[in-house]
């Protein structure tokens, strides 16, 4: 009897996992990966939240070595819950991986992120943690580190209310991309230098001692960048830096200028940042992400125009934040202002309306559509 019950439960689970269908028009790809950067389930075929991880792993991987570790659960004002996962391989986290599952009514309606499709790394370390740390410190090359200063170590223990707290780096094992894009086992060290000041995660190949990468932990806002826009050529823009990537956000103009990726969805709450690793935004790809910098640059120039011509702090004279959302819905041939933000569709190839035509008809320097909504908003 028990075996029959287990068989029925397994059959039910198998049906639940295999019956999901994705809207093929919604899929955005990731270079070098067979796993979508974004996908939306067809209505009526959404997996239950409880089986999503199993469905995802069964659908995209043939090995049980790959896992997803839940990092956080957040609920927004629209009633959606957003689950954030990190990829693991043989129980070891994969650096720079992330998967977001968006849940409504107990069902996952879409997901997005960056997950490695192929990992076959060795889990054995040929290098000691101490030797790897020496390599990381040589790479940083600071004259003084925080853990070398007794007063800083004492302050940290008081600040953290932890007698064992220390700045001294401890190696954590991660998988990180190595040569030719293959993942290798690495030590990650959190290295806080006092002179010159810096704080970085440094990844050291656990076999060779080579430096695989680093992530800044000291965040800088309003960083000058360069963007290859589709409509205005190469232009200077301002972004911010998270310590890992650059985003299309800045705080220097009014209360800010921010540009987001709707990923062909229609929920502003589910939008994510456009990101870049070196702040040179030459993001020409099949997802048409290059047009995000047109929106960001246009908003910056609009602010500058009204500030220089009319001494006006944004569209309301009080620093109104200029928000732009790109990649609205699927085949949406328009752009609009809704009283709070600018939103841009990608156009429709069937009717020969591209996102460039949408941008051209709604943006200029200064941004014509923004000027129109300034008239509506500010009564000019």
Report on the structure:
Strands 1, 2, 3, 4, 5, 6 and 7 form a 7-stranded antiparallel β-sheet that branches. Strands 16, 17, 18, 21, 22 and 23 form a 6-stranded mixed β-sheet that branches. Strands 8, 9, 10, 11 and 12 form a 5-stranded antiparallel β-sheet that branches. The chain is built from 7 helices and 25 strands. A hairpin with a 4-residue loop joins strand 22 and strand 23. It has 3 domains: 17-114, Nuclear Transport Factor 2, Chain: A (Roll), CATH 3.10.450; 129-216, Nuclear Transport Factor 2, Chain: A (Roll); 220-378, Elastase, domain 1 (Roll). It has helices spanning 2-18, 52-60, 129-140, 150-160, 291-310, 355-362, 368-378, and strands spanning 28-30, 33-40, 66-75, 81-89, 92-93, 98-104, 107-114, 144-145, 172-177, 183-195, 197-205, 211-216, 220-228, 234-241, 246-247, 249-250, 257-261, 272-273, 275-276, 280-281, 322-328, 335-337, 342-345, 347-348, 353-354.
